[in-house]
Specification:
This protein is α/β, with parallel strands linked by helices. It is built from eight helices and seven strands, in the order E-H-E-H-E-E-H-E-H-H-E-H-E-H-H.
């Protein structure tokens, strides 16, 4: 079972958007997917509640109410981590995953918060022992703005791979309202978004995203 977690203690950076869209991608690929929501707001579970019955089923778990026990048939366990997780709680959260996807927004506040978080993350035992793989995703970025170029420079300085940039697109809102991912919308309407996701899904399906 692959165990992938979206994580960043800064609220509103897109953890749920990434988690739900990863879940929809893998279920569309024919895999059995479980989506575990560790955030008290339960946004991922709310997304599942409005998911149409005619689409492939994604098993949901409210991870705030007890240990996560995914069905044995699960191929991909996607975990949506809570905000404001630090210290011992962060170490415990990281133990649950083999792959971490870290979204960051192109704003000075978010970039500084992400830098502090990554510095803390690198001290976590499982990370320092290279028992997990990490990747950074620039989220809701608008090209050719000062903040966008600052974000590019910031991510270029990290020792963690910066895999792709996802644009600020209404497609994500439209999909979320229906309990869907962008991979389940008409391809012609999300062509650019699908292109931007390709580096991330390719990395997630490769050995590079799995600890040796």
């Amino acid at each position: 079972m692959r165990k992938i977690m979206t994580i960043n203690p800064k609220g509103g950076c897109g953890k749920t958007t990434l988690a739900t869209n990863m879940a929809s991608y893998f279920v569309q690929e024919g895999y059995n997917v479980t989506l575990a929501d560790y955030d008290l707001q339960q946004s991922s579970m709310d997304w599942l509640k409005v998911r149409p019955e005619e689409y492939p089923d994604i098993h949901g778990i409210d991870a705030t109410s007890g240990p996560v026990k995914a069905p044995r048939s699960t191929n991909f366990l996607i975990m949506d981590a809570p905000a404001a997780v630090h210290g011992a709680e962060l170490a415990e959260m990281v133990k649950k995953a083999e792959t971490l996807v870290i979204p960051v927004l192109p704003s000075p506040v978010d970039m500084r918060a992400c830098a502090h978080f990554i510095k803390e993350l690198l001290t976590v035992g499982k990370v320092s022992r290279k028992q997990t793989r990490m990747v950074v995703v620039a989220n809701r970025a608008r090209e050719y703005t000062i903040a966008y170029h600052q974000l590019e420079a910031f991510l270029g300085a990290l020792k963690i791979p910066f895999i792709t940039t996802l644009r600020d697109s209404q497609s994500y809102i439209r999909a979320a309202d229906q309990g869907l991912g962008i991979f389940e919308l008409a391809p012609s309407s999300v062509y650019t978004d699908l292109e931007q996701w390709e580096p991330l899904v390719r990395w997630l399906k490769s050995k590079r995203s799995i600890p040796a």
